[in-house]
Specification:
This protein has 6 helices and no strands. It has 101 residues and is mainly alpha-helical. It has one domain.
Length: 101
């Protein structure tokens, strides 16, 4: 699955009335499945990882097999949850006046 991160960021930033996480999930609606586990995992990853950690995990394409098994998601769904959480952190940083990267 290929995600245009910059286009997704612009879509998410346009959703000012949404929380960072909701905007990120909505911005990736073309890539995001309707799987509640992906949404819940993205929320967990967002809450438990800072921007630097999420960025590193996505860059390294790491999948925590044990965590994926616990959340009952595939590797692709796990990576999507990471993308959602990372996008949400980028939106949060921009809204707070920090740089996106």
């Amino acid at each position: 699955m290929q995600i245009d991160r910059e286009a997704a960021l612009q879509r998410a930033l346009a959703m000012k009335e949404h929380s960072c996480l909701d905007a990120a999930y909505a911005a990736l609606d073309g890539a995001a499945s309707k799987n509640d586990q992906v949404s819940e995992l993205a929320g967990f990853l967002f809450d438990s990882n800072d921007y630097a950690e999420l960025k590193k995990i996505c860059a390294d394409l790491q999948v925590d097999k044990e965590q994926a098994r616990e959340w009952k998601v595939t590797d692709a769904e796990y990576c999507l949850a990471h993308e959602i959480a990372l996008l949400a952190r980028r939106v949060e940083r921009i809204r707070e006046g920090l740089t996106a990267d």
